[in-house]
Amino acid sequence: MITWGNRHKYTVMAAFLGIVSVFMARQWDYDLWEVTASALNAFDLIKGHEIMFLGFFVVIGFAIDINNRRKRHRKFRELSEERVQAMKATMTTVNDIVNNALNSLQIFRLEAEKNAALSPGSIHQFDAIIFDTASRLKNVHDLDVFVPHKIAEGLTGIREN
């Protein structure tokens, strides 16, 4: 579970650093930004520079968080695309192997039909099995999103639809 603190860890760290800096400046009566104090003097905001100092850290931390999140998202998207391409390449190979086997079975079917070795009902069932297998292979090959599902204990497959 991703919490707000995990998602914006640099923002939180920057805010913490800013708060610690402000408290340290108060404790030791130390001026955080002597240069900005003179600029802010014209606006009668002598202590406003402390707030600006804190805000500076928060803005920098937030910018780093956004940049890191974009990098992670881009990397995740690239990895997902690579996985899909690898899965499609694997399915193409599996499709080729199984289709070659199904074509070989068709030759045996024609020979069995010619020699009347099987009943017409058995030949029809044999054809249905071959066409169903070819159709299921095509469905899996055409998938763009691969959703795993448990087939049996220790065996995971891909949901076809």
Structure description:
This protein has 161 residues and is mainly alpha-helical. It has two domains: 4-75, no CATH class; 83-158. It is 75% helix and 6% strand. A two-stranded antiparallel sheet has the order 1-2. Strand 1 and strand 2 form a beta hairpin. Helix 4 (48-114) runs antiparallel to helix 5 (120-141). The protein is rod-shaped. The model has no long low-confidence stretch (mean pLDDT 77).
In short:
This protein has 161 residues and is mainly α. The two termini are 29 Å apart.
Give the count of structural domains. Answer: 2
- Summarize model confidence as the mean pLDDT: 77
Strand arrangement in the largest pleated sheet: 1-2
Largest sheet geometry: 2 strands, antiparallel
Low-confidence stretches: none
| Number of helical regions | 5
Q: Name the structural class.
A: mainly alpha
Strand content: 5-15%
Report the count of strand segments.
Answer: 2
Q: What is the approximate shape?
A: rod-shaped
Radius of gyration computed on alpha carbons:
34 Å
Helical residue percent?
A: over 70%
Cα end-to-end separation: 29 Å
Helix-strand pattern, N to C? HHHHHEE
Give the topology.
Blueprint: H1 4-7, H2 9-27, H3 34-41, H4 48-114, H5 120-141, E1 148-152, E2 155-158
Antiparallel strand pairs: 1-2
Task: Supply database-style keywords.
161 residues, mainly alpha, 2 domains, two-stranded antiparallel ribbon, 5 helices, 2 strands, rod-shaped
